[in-house]
Amino acid sequence: MAEGSGDDGGERAEERWLPSPHPRTEPADASADPFGDPVPLPRRHTGAKITRRTFVALLSVIAFTATGIAYLTYDNLKSNVHTTDALGTGEDTGSPPADDGATDILLVGTDSRSDMQGNPLPPSMLKSLRTEEKAGINTDTIIVLRLPKDGGKPSGISIPRDSWVTVPGGGEAKINSAFGTAKTEAAAKLRNTGETDQAKIERDSDQEGRRALIKTVQDFTQIRVDHYAEVSLLGFYLLTEALGGVQVCLKQATEDKDSGANFKAGVQTVSGGEALSFVRQRKNLPHGDLDRIVRQQAFLSSALHQVLSAGTLTSPTKLGQLTDAVHRSIVLDPDLDILKFAEQAKGIASGDVGFKTIPVVTINGRSPDGTQSIVQIDPPTVQQYVASLVGRAPAPPVQPPTGGGGAPGGGPAPARPVAGVTAPPGVTCVY
């Protein structure tokens, strides 16, 4: 709003709101403050304007209110969020050094078919999630968020779910099976000891699955996982619904019956089951699993941009819905500071976080027995690449993966905008 006209108009407007040295006052009644002191009445003037001082005061009130809501929500969230001790006490001498120049947060998306209490999801919910009931669990999304301690640019490093790695206690296998294999073995042991509470078996075996996945990631990348955050299919569904959908942009129309994907080209808003199909599709994509990773990265950036720029965090209703979604389906380690993490997450929405994918040899590999399609990787190259992101090693020479037309630097080529389509801020067009 204008502050006045002329060189000193703003100052004169401000002065009109200041009391005179001998202000007129009214009795201590309706026009007095709560303590009974007389309130100076402003001088009469024509065309009063909001002054700089009033405007700053207004902003201060808004900021105070928003901060109060955020902290109230934080306290509510912290007291209700589910936690895991899967990181242990740090006494495992086989783990990489704790201080490697970065704080590393392992972000995991699972295809769990149970809720936080270990109870199976009803068929109606599974239908909404565009999936079916099945035994076991896989980790469809594995991202390590590296936050350099020297203030350098953070990196979100995606690990393809079909990466062929050494799984502790299970030999060589796809990395997304580490959680499920350990969970299955732990559940069998619990049943053999006489445990009959299926919900308890689910919860306790999940803990073993998380420990196995963390150890697998640590051994594979040679970085120490400092914090852990996990969201289930149900959680992803609820979060996107609470946001009212997330904007995405596709370079071309695509369809996949397995994931339920059926999308047009261009900008569109997806939520619930559609959002799950968007991040889970890999068939009929030019680069298969690597394109799915790019989708996940683009979706995460768009969702965070929406949360931080569209007033979501100042809406009590939306905050309540988000808190409920977090409570029902997200697991964190108890030492992860949610407010600090949210502050760091702003970098993702603003583009300050560089999303990357580990270097891969080929996306069309086969397991040694020839029965499985895998993503072949070279562990020493991956370890050097990850270390280079915080300056602990020179960046290794990385060749484009065979079988997918990927770009050097550990991932697919950046997506180009759709012809004639302008993506909104924070939204990237992908395949």
Automatic annotation (TrEMBL):
Residue stretches spanning the membrane: 54-74
Annotated keywords: Membrane, Transmembrane, Transmembrane helix
Location of region: Disordered: 1-44, 392-419
InterPro entries: LytR/CpsA/Psr_CW_biosynth, LytR_CpsA_psr
Pfam families in the cross-refs: LytR_cpsA_psr
NCBIfam families per the UniProt record, alphabetical: lytR_cpsA_psr (TIGR00350)
Record PANTHER family: POLYISOPRENYL-TEICHOIC ACID--PEPTIDOGLYCAN TEICHOIC ACID TRANSFERASE TAGU
Identification of the protein by name: LCP family protein
Source organism phylogeny: Bacteria, Bacillati, Actinomycetota, Actinomycetes, Pseudonocardiales
